[in-house]
Amino acid sequence: MHLSWQVVVTLSVSAVLVHTTGNLAEARSERLTTSNNSPLLLAQATAAPETSEPMEFNIPPQPLGSAITAFGDQANYRLLLPSDLAEGRSTSGVSGRHTPEDALTLMLAGTGLSYRMTEARTMTLEPMAATPLAPAPLSQEPLRSTPNTQVQAAPKPVKVPEIVVKEVEDRGYAVDESSSATRIPAPIHDTPRSVEVVTRQVLDDQKVIRFSEALRNVSGVSQSSTQGGQGGTFMIRGFASELNVFKNGFRDDSNFSARAQRDIINIESVEVVKGPPSYLYGRSDPGGVINQVTKAPLKDRYYSAEMIVGSYGLYRPQIDMGGALNESKTLTYRFNGMYESGGSYRDGVNTERIFLAPTFGWEMSSRTNLRFEAEYMYDRAPIDRGLVAFGNGVAPIPVSSFLGDPSRKLETHHGKATITLWHDISNLFRWRTAFRTAVTSSRYSSLESNFLVGAESDGILNLARYEIPTTVQSHYLQNELHGNFTTGSIKHKTIIGIELGRENSSATASGDFGGDTSTPGAFSYINIFNTNDRLFLNPALTKFSDASTQNNILGAYFGDQVDLLDNLHVHFGGRFDLFDQTITNHPDDFTATRSQNNQTDTAFSPSVGIAYQPVKPITLFANYTESFAPQSTGSRSINGNLFNPERGKSYEGGIKYQAFGGKLRSTVALFDIKKKNVLTADPLNGFFFSVATGEQRSKGVEFDIAGQILPGWDIIANYAYIDTRVTKDLLFAEGSRAPNSALHQGSLWTTYFFQEGIAQGFGAGIGMYAQGKRNGIFQCQDPANCQAPFEMAGYVRMDAALYYRKQEVFNKTNLLAAINFTNVLDHRYFSGAQDFREIVYTGAPFTAIGSLKFEFH
Fold first, then answer.
1. Where is the Secretin/TonB short N-terminal domain (predicted)?
2. Given phi > 0 = left and psi -120 to 50 = alpha, else beta, which region is 275?
3. Full-model pTM
4. What are 785-834's pLDDT values in tens digits?
5. Residues 6+ apart with CB under 8 A from 304
6. Backbone dihedral angles phi then psi of residue 841, each to the nearest 5 degrees
7. 740-757 pLDDT, tens digit each
8. Would you state the CATH architecture of domain 302-856?
9. Under CATH, to which class is 55-127 assigned?
């Protein structure tokens, strides 16, 4: 979606259009200039001064240009600011009840700017000698200030007649700040890590409705496994992980939280930080962290209703609304909801989903804020294991072939609740306390692919039946102290935190493992070449597992983003983790006794990085980071010993470049990551036990670019060269490439909207996503001891879109219409595999999605 923020300023003398930078897109405007020909951000008029009175302000941390516009809206003031002075400056904001004079003084504190009256009703902002740059915001909530904050004196402004501001949102493809790399907001350009953000604008333009599709916009990231329709496994820099997905800084993994395909209905942005994230997030694989940032409550009224329809019977109405609940706007809310029903290109596969996400904000005082967020998801769909390998590739059958019983479903109920309290202890320090609880109940019922019987050419696929009711819970408490202060001339953005967590799961697994394949009619099967040739049986099931797991987590972490100079930035931090796991096995049909195992792991994960800017648009950066990940549940050696956690080490370096005042950003990064203590099946003891001799290494180069090239023309693109190999192992072939990791991977998406004339409001988008060939499973040293390897061919998928967007199509109503086309060339491709020749996930053929959205304000 590329609607411009069009700010219409109505004065008693004249009406002008505002032209701003920062978070506001360029608009057609009547522009004034200063003596150096810099465009001004607001218009000038004449009037007599008026006395100002205290009033309520709520201007969160943001780029200075957009803050000035917000101030004009809330205070009814007119300010002049050359746009070249706005570039690169931000404000910590202002909140609470102040006179406009005090509020503006607070808002400009630390920006290096002061203001003066140039004529009646007109104030011009100008540089202040020896004033430091504005501190970066400390969190998603504004840093509260009080009238007695010590700042440098500035000339007193005057009040002018009412300015009426009307805004239509445009979030763009590039952002200035991210909190995922440091857990507190910091400029991406100054952060010595590779950080990429997929904005809401990108999600809307691409009409993304599944979280995994958002990640194609980030280099080296993809979903390798859907786990049959569950949370999924993601590849980041060549390493597969279920651990590295978070939401607002809380763990959102596929084991104890997200058990169904994630939705994006309440997501504002997706932030990806490359390299090991254990220094702030705890146990994780070394590829990186994916953090979902949810939509915040709104102070101003907003309503939208959207209908999405598409191929294969897709039907998805959704709403997004928010605003203030009281006159003083101290109580606010946001609600996102959707219902989805649809078929699939997969024969007989039907899905039903409901997602509800209310959020409430309470400004308890000028220094204290409380936020409550909740989510509920219902998901009902078959377990879909895709196709099967055939020879060295994938079976030559249609991707529509469903190799199982689609009438059996995985049904999931998932709920989350988060409460967060921010309190500003002073103007330098803030306290954050947050508690998140998540509970999921699911019933896994399937008749799914097991193994091919006899010769592959016969196509007889044995089917296994499973019934697995599961309940998982996770509860996390985070307490953090944030700091934003200076020591001499050195600026600090610090965090000290402690995290406590408990995770519980219980599952009873029953199944029939395919029956007696030597006796015709005694086992369930399907013919992959003729799916009408099949036999679905319902024999008595065997309870093969009845287990519960409890994890207790303690993490203590710290970090400091240090500005040694205006162009030299250092980040360092670390985390100490204690991870205690207890596994209880209850009696089942194989074991008559109850057993319990306990394992406690500890680790310290450091991180250090440096960023240097020889000139402001260019940042050179480098970092070293380590990771920590406990071994999988129940892994044992032949002697009954437990294993040390996996540990990873990463070296990264690169260059960042921003153009057009930060509207276009790019990053090039080189990395070298190694992880050890990788578990391998014990080849000397029947593969029922494990040995920890494995080592894997990933190295490569990545390129990302996102932002605006010209007014109306946006782009987001990436490329990754990633070489991930087994470097040490007893079972897998050393030097072989890791599964699901393509040597070459990249994507491109670009949109253009006509800015004027009869075509104004029309736009189009085009893009592509490509992956090179990938191994389906690990290659063994001795092929006789494990499954034969196979490859998934490389592919290029082309996408496109057509748009029409009309502001004020009705009074206070905007229209947004789009048709999005996926895989327009109808290319056959496979998205990934899951450790077996019988599980190869398919990519969708040509698909069209139409959407019609009305925004009311």
1. 77-128
2. left
3. 0.81
4. 788 899 999 999 999 999 999 988 888 899 999 999 999 999 999 999 98
5. 319, 320, 321, 853, 854, 855, 856
6. -85, 140
7. 999 999 999 999 999 999
8. Beta Barrel (2.40)
9. alpha beta
